[in-house]
User: Fold Gibberellin 2-beta-dioxygenase protein from Dioscorea alata.
Amino acid sequence: MVVLAKPSSITQSSPLKPQKPTTPTVLAYSTCSSFIIPTIDLSDPISSPSSIVKACENLGFFKLTNHGIPSSLMSTLESEAVNFFSLPQSHKDINCPPSPFGYGNKKIGSNGDVGWLEYLLFNISSSSSFPSSSLRYALNEYTKAVRKVVKEVLEMMADGLRIKPRDVFSKLVMNEESDTMFRLNHYPPCPPLLQGLNSSLTGFGEHTDPQVLSVLRSNNTCGFQIALRDGSWVSVPPDQDSLFINVGDSLQVLTNGRFKSVKHRVMANGLRSRVSMIYFGGLSPRERLAPLPQLMREGEESLYKEFTWFEFKTFAYKTRLADNRLSLFEIERKTTTNTSSVASIV
Ligand SMILES: C=C1C[C@]23C[C@@]1(O)CC[C@H]2[C@@]12CC[C@H](O)[C@@](C)(C(=O)O1)[C@H]2[C@@H]3C(=O)O
Ligand SMILES: O=C(O)CCC(=O)C(=O)O
Ligand SMILES: [Fe+2]
Assistant:
């Protein structure tokens, strides 16, 4: 079934006030600046597999409705995040800077990137320390629910691509050793003075996510943007009841470039806070990253050198946000018309 999403109404409220969930999305596309965000209804097993594949090929991004995660799990985690970010700065700074896990403020990664945000970064696979047991509980409950959604989406993706086994993608990120990360981001409203100097202050600079896929949920504050294939940026209307899925660099490799990782960024909002929670599904460190043989057409060659997730992540964490992290692993292919043949033609 194709359903149309109602453009979300953005209510203004005081910074860091959790918003009440809006009415459930009933209508299959949400529009923004005349751009249509592909919307997949997870409760529709018939058309979703092919729609997921189409969205991943065209954009590397889609919105997911009817995902089955109770809104109470999302709003509880949002409230826990809001409680933490509302603490006095000196309290939050106890765990700062993140190494790379913990609390971070304005600095993103360790290579000089900055943004108008503060955040908490967790490693779900190994025990990260949590600011409070209630936040730990809320995060565990939410991530358990997201894992089910990730499994379903990745299995529908395999169905849509007509490859077997169904769990060919999901087993990579659902494994006990899979490197799963979680991030709570808080973008405070951008002060008018700063807005005056630069009307579009960057919250989180443009980048692709290195993992297989990322699952984003935010409150109803706009600011999230994705890049289209022609390089233009479009805003994604926020929808706190839905999830947004980003294709990551690793999925680009697994599909030999058939799916492209989506470039995205967050612009700061002048009036209200944005709070987002992102689940990053990575692989286990020793897992080989290479195109799936089931997806290779006759004679098709891999676009990438072989490497493990550990090698890729180690390299990725030495790069700046906007860098193309896959370039080091791309195989340079000689064009069919090489210089000598050009010379002979001339
Ligand atoms: C600048 C950086 C931050 C980042 C590590 C990196 O060196 C390049 C990749 C960045 C990114 C983007 C997606 C996720 O938010 C993240 C946690 C990840 O796995 O890769 C961040 C890293 C980070 O914030 O440490
Ligand atoms: O906070 C957001 O909405 C997106 C942040 C993001 O892309 C990231 O943390 O990798
Ligand atoms: Fe991201």
About this structure: Confidence is low (pLDDT under 50) at residues 1-15, 17-32, 337-346. The pocket of 2-oxoglutaric acid (ligand 2) is lined by residues 183, 185, 204, 209, 216, 218, 224, 264, 266, 276, 278 (CB under 6 Å).
